[in-house]
Design a protein that fits this description.
Layout: H1 15-26, H2 35-45, E1 51-54, E2 60-64, E3 71-77, E4 82-88, E5 93-99, E6 111-116, E7 119-126, E8 147-149, H3 155-160, E9 168-171, E10 176-178, E11 182-185, H4 188-206, E12 214-220, H5 228-237, E13 241-249, H6 258-261, E14 271-274, H7 280-292, E15 298-301, H8 309-314, E16 321-329, E17 337-340, H9 341-357
Parallel strand pairs: 3-12, 3-13, 13-16, 14-15
Antiparallel strand pairs: 1-2, 2-12, 4-5, 4-9, 5-8, 6-7, 6-9, 7-8, 10-11, 11-17, 14-16
Helix pairs in contact: 1-4, 4-9, 7-9
């Protein structure tokens, strides 16, 4: 007998949300210069929130039930890795410095956008052709030898284009789908997180869910250079609870080490972290919500720190009950970062389910 096929569950995404995801990922949002991306994000979530505010450095917060004294945060970070123009040679070539954890090894032959006051200036990472390299003495790309070529003859010509030391450089790569299964692009770390928390706001609004607390939907800046945006906004909001979403490594592809990075897979659900910054009672609530709603999840050990904005919230103020829900991702900090579409949906579902499980004025510090 033929095996019965089960009907696939309808996607929670609509065409408007998918269009937003594409536009949001394609739009540059380098660390320290997140404004354009933040405007896109705020425009999308505005119909689903009661009010919003923006802090000094550009973190955007949408608020539902702003008058409620008990405050719950859901958070992602908005910034992407990039480079700074560091040195312009007399011949018109450019050397760079990192802005965040940019991967120098993927740079040769990549196309980039240099962001100037005059607009975008196009450039490429030059690299000697294979024909002229000595195979016995192959140089590895480093920040000392990779360079940008703008097609200019001199430093003066570069400057005439509006390019100067301090201009930000981002890769030119666009969003795509892979086998109708993966979202692929640069900066899914962690603008896909911003997309997911925005979708949480949409689903709460469309389902007319009434939460008994204030919900602060935070898209924070400057995570890639030290959790800076989260550190600042945590002290301003002074939340009781914070649920952070970020990405973690899928370890199923070649050259990954499960002993070092754990056994985590795209397509097998959100990843819940264990570590000192994760408040155990809040984590239990999230696990219970996952089990109750039949959401498959994975686990990872974060050890001393999570390396995410969870740490900034957890240790702010007098201590904030915090937890981390991660999205498995392949090829982090490259231009082909990849996440499984079903994982994206399940992270959103798990955040919604967890929020519905939190009681007003719930004290997660209670010792049983």
């Amino acid at each position: 007998m033929a095996k019965k096929t089960t009907k696939k569950e309808k996607s929670i995404f609509n065409q408007n949300s998918l269009n937003f995801l594409k536009d949001y990922l394609n739009n540059p949002s380098p660390t320290g210069f997140e404004t354009a991306g933040q405007k896109l994000w705020l425009n999308y979530i505005t119909p689903y929130i009661d009010e919003h505010f923006v802090d000094t450095y550009g973190t955007v917060v949408g608020v539902i039930n702003p008058e409620a004294p008990y405050k719950v945060v859901i958070e992602a970070h908005a910034d992407e890795i990039s480079y700074f123009v560091h040195y312009i040679t007399k011949d018109g070539f450019i050397y760079l410095r990192r802005n965040g954890g940019s991967d120098h090894q993927i740079a040769p032959s990549k196309r980039v956008n240099i962001h100037t006051d005059k607009g975008i200036v196009r450039a490429v990472f030059g690299w000697p052709a294979i024909h002229v390299r000595d195979a016995a003495k192959e140089e590895t790309p480093t920040l000392k030898n990779i360079f940008l070529d703008l097609g200019c003859k001199s430093d003066k010509e570069v400057e005439e284009l509006g390019v100067h030391v301090g201009c930000v450089v981002t890769y030119e790569d666009e969003f795509m789908e892979l086998n109708n299964r993966y979202f692929v692009g640069r900066a899914l770390d962690n603008r896909v997180g911003g997309f997911m928390i925005a979708e949480v706001a949409r689903l709460l609004k469309e389902s007319k869910t009434k939460l008994p607390f204030g919900l602060y939907i935070v898209n924070a800046v400057q995570e890639e250079v030290g959790l800076n945006g989260a550190t600042m906004i945590a002290h301003r909001i002074k939340p009781n609870v914070a649920i952070i979403t970020d990405v973690c490594h899928d370890t199923q592809t070649p050259m990954m080490n499960k002993i070092a990075s754990g056994d985590l897979a795209c397509g097998k659900g959100p990843v819940l972290s264990y570590g000192p910054a994760v408040q155990n009672n809040l984590l239990k609530l999230i696990i219970d919500a996952a089990k109750k709603n039949k959401i498959e999840f994975q686990r990872q050990a974060a050890s001393r720190s999570t390396g995410t904005d969870t740490d900034a919230f957890a240790y702010s103020n007098e201590g904030v009950a915090s937890a981390l829900i991660s999205l498995p991702l392949r090829y982090m900090h490259t231009t082909v970062e990849s996440v499984h579409k079903e994982d994206v949906e399940n992270v959103i579902k798990l955040i919604v389910s967890s929020l519905k499980s939190i009681k007003n004025n719930q004290d997660f510090r209670y010792l049983k």
